[in-house]
Structures are given as C-alpha cells and as structure tokens.
Amino acid sequence: MVRYELEYPKQPYSTVKRYDSLASYSLSTIHTIIATSPLVNVSFNPPNSPFPTILPMIGALGSYARPSADITDVQDLYLHGYVSSRIMNLSRTPDQPDGLPVCISATHLDGLVLTLTPNSHNYNYRSATLFGHATLVTDRDEKLFAMRRITDGVVPGRWEGSRVPPNAGEMASTSVLRVKIAAGSAKVRAGGPTDDKGDMSDEALKDRVWTGVVPVYQTLGTPLAGEYNRVEVPGYIAEYVRDSNVGAQEQAVEAAKATVVPKKVVDE
To answer: Which CATH class is domain 20-214?
Structure first.
C-alpha cells in the first residue's frame, strides 16, 4: 500500500527561498525536529512594543482529538507557562479572535563542516519553523493531556513516575497554550565539506589544510541523586539516557557521511 507523506502548505511567509534544495515541508521531518528539541523559541509581537519578543519555552506536539496521532499526522503544539505571564495574557485578549500569532523554531547542530577556505565553512544542521495561532486551553481534561505530553517530552514516562495529578494550586498557577499550526518548513544540511573548483585544483592547499566534519551531538550525563532522594535511578530514566546518547551520536555521524545535496541559490 502506498502511503503519501503529508506536507504543510507553502505560504509566502513559510517558503524557503535561499538554498531551497535543502528545504522540507514534510510533517514528519518538521515535527521530528521540534519534538526532539529540549526547548523551542516562541516569538510574537506584543502591542505597544518597538521590538518583537522571543521566549525559550518547553513545548510538546499532540492532538487531543486524536491522541494516537504521531509525528506524521496533523497535530497541535502545546506550550505551558505561568498563568500571568505576558504571552498568556496576550492570548486572552478579545482582539485576537483566532489567537495570538506566533512563530516557533528549533535547531539541532549535527556537525562542524571544515573546508579549505573560511568562506565555505558550514554546519550540518536541522532547523524547523512553525507558524500558527496560540489560544488558551480552558478544558481541564485537555489541559491535563497537554501537561502530560509536555512532562513526558522531558523524559518519557516521567508523568507516571512523579506525583500526579497536579493539585489545585498547580493547576491554577499554570496555563497551557494550544498552537494551531497553519504552516511550517524545515531546512536540513548534511554531508561533508565542499569547495570551489579553484581551491580543489590547488594541490599545495590540499596538502596543508585538513578538511572534514567534526560531529556534534548532545550527551546526557549520569543521573545524580538529589539531596533527599531515597530510590535508585528508575529504569525508564536510565534507558532514556542511554538511548538518547546513542541516537544523538548516530544522527551526527550519519549526517557527516551523507551525500551533500547540491545548493540552488534563489535570492529574493
């Protein structure tokens, strides 16, 4: 059976122009980048401010209507924060009937690409941006759904591994935003160094300059017990640390060995 990969629609504000051969609009690609980032950067335009605002936040993808939806499916992005924070207050204003317009981005660095000349040095990276409207979640069950997704996004299984459900005070002091995603795009660079023909034909240059990729990946350390901890490190935490470290290293090494996608430059 043929399975078609869903993509976000290309919009004027979301279409990648420069090096568009590196672009992807695949839900799977974009969602994976967002879902595997410990933090996302959320930007919005506060009224009466001369500058946009950008906040590092913890977010999690999910669909309350379809809890079984995975990264290949249409989902919302949930963000949580303090009840009286500016972004939460702006999401309550009646002059934003569709919600607060937001942009959300995440980037992973996979390698340092070192070439013959400084001008052609590069990074192996995966970046994604989502565009959507944020509204407050008012339904208690959906709020709990989102809080669980966000907690398990920190360490899978942590929701059940902690004291739940949140008490009344915790529920009252925490707000959750649901971002309905309108569009998204990703840009991914993988592969080794590339240099222009002039430098490549300079044998003396190639004899003295090292070229290649230094893989870059996040490593989780050995869990350290807290001052009042009384239990051994649970299996789900140890497993997450191990699997995360192995996966991150494999991702970086595979990116370094990948075939470079030729760049097609479009400037507008």
So the answer is: mainly beta
